[in-house]
Amino acid sequence: MTASLRSLRPHRDGVLLAAAGLLGGLTLWAVGVGTQGAAPLLPGAWVLAPLVVTAGLELLRRTAPRTILLVGTVALIANQFTTGSPATILMYTDLMYAAVLYGSPAAARRIPWATGLCTVGAAIGFTAWLQRADGLLLGLAVGLVGFLPAITGAQVRGHRDAAGAARLRTEQIALLAEMDRAQAVTAERARMARELHDLVANHLSAIAIHSTAALSLDDARTTREALTVIRENSVDGLAEMRRLIGLLRDGGDEARRPDPAPSLAALDALLEQARANGASSGLGFTLDDRRGTATTLPAPVELAAYRIVQESLTNALKHAAPGTVAVELGSAAGALTVRVTSPYGARPGPRAPGSGAGLIGMGERAALLDGVFEAGPVSGGDGGHEVWAVRAELPVSRNHRGPEGSGTS
Asked: Is 234 in a helix, a strand, or coil?
């Protein structure tokens, strides 16, 4: 009920127009100014009736445009049977303008056409009735009162609608830009999380395993060897972290820019490090590269393959039973294949805890390249025993999604 009453409350512009029109009409009537030269059918104060009605309609020009046009037309016709008030005619032109501007879209389209036809019809009719060219002037007067305000209202409404549509498009573009920014931030956070995990997990796993061994075995030689491995991995991990922090802090400084992203050419060094870290756990590591010497891979594919091998070796150091961890690289149907197998079963000695984030990160790297990733126990190891197998197919001839190509270590 309150909202309904509020919607009927006159707008300030309507109140001002009604007051000005009523005051002006009363002043013109008081000084004897009218539009009818001959003796009217309703002389005297009858001219005030259409004036008051039209002024009252100005209060509803925004809230009831259709009603004010119909009643205003009746008041305008009635005004012609009195001495005629110019103020009534002027207020009617504003009612016609408001009916087009604030009315329904259908009314906004029809009213200019209707007033245009009335103007032409009035010009032809008055000319035929009077049998002289003065009838054209009467038709022009009808056009000034009806057609001109209607076409003006249509133009103003068109500009208003165009401005509203442009504002809506601007808001939509801003919303899409904000969504893109949020998605870019999320993607960058995910990329940095993968990079951070891959950079330090290998070193921290080795530190955890050897520190556990040093604490659990009361042997000076074993403790010294474990501390040596711990120190080496601590120094290497710290260096990797510094490079990553340098990327975040000084990404535009060429002199302090981190090293470029690792490639498959660095796998030998990666396996040497794994051999040193896994020797105490009875693990051996082999690499079988069947790609051929002329194989050239896109940088995002090389980085993803390197990180998958790196994380697989880290998982083997933490969870694999004694035996051989085999890394195999190959090419098939326009894709790079990566397969890492490790002994699967009970493991003696110390183990490092796992969170599962490594498998998630490897799957994300493959998905960003529209590739395939699988991980789990399979049969077919040495002696038919189960092994843990990680397998990835990374397409090399597609448009790769995501920021992998820009990753650095």
From this structure: helix
Whole-angstrom Cα Rg for the chain: 43
To 10 degrees, what angle do helices 267-278 and 299-319 make?
10
Helix count and strand count (H, E) for the chain: 12, 5
> Which DSSP helix (H) or strand (E) runs through 364?
helix 357-368
Residue 348 tokens, joined: 């003696």
Domains of the chain with CATH codes: 2-174 (no CATH), 176-406 (3.30.565.10)
Quote the CA–CA distance of 264 and 312 in Å, as a whole number: 14
Distance separating alpha carbons of residues 120 and 93, to the nearest angstrom: 18
pLDDT in the model for residue 213: 64
- Report helix, strand or coil for 371: coil
Name residues whose C-beta falls within 8 Å of residue 365's C-beta, 6 or more positions apart in sequence: 194, 304, 307, 308, 373, 404
Predicted confidence (pLDDT) at residue 172 exceeds the cutoff of 60: yes
Q: What is the pLDDT of residues 107-155, one digit of tens each?
A: 889 999 999 999 898 889 888 888 887 778 888 888 899 899 999 999 9
> pLDDT at position 149, please?
93
